[in-house]
Write a structure and sequence with these properties.
about 10% helix, about 40% strand, two-stranded antiparallel sheet, mainly beta, binds zinc ion, 3-stranded antiparallel beta sheet
């Protein structure tokens, strides 16, 4: 399992999206629009898509 990271648009930092996925599942998944309710870097709400996501590990 790998942790899904997204880049915070406010700070440019990589933050956890709070989701763990298999790499193969992630590659097949559509994930058109996802919401991060409370960004650990800036505390704001962000909407992200698969294109914004990076797998860690
Ligand atoms: Zn943020």
């Amino acid at each position: 399992m790998a942790k899904v990271m997204i880049k915070c648009p406010e700070t440019g930092k990589l933050v956890s999206a709070g989701i763990w996925v298999d790499k193969s599942t992630f590659e097949k998944a559509q994930m058109p629009e996802n919401t991060l309710g409370h960004c650990p870097a800036c505390g704001k709400k962000h909407t992200w898509t698969k294109n914004d996501a990076i797998l860690e590990g």
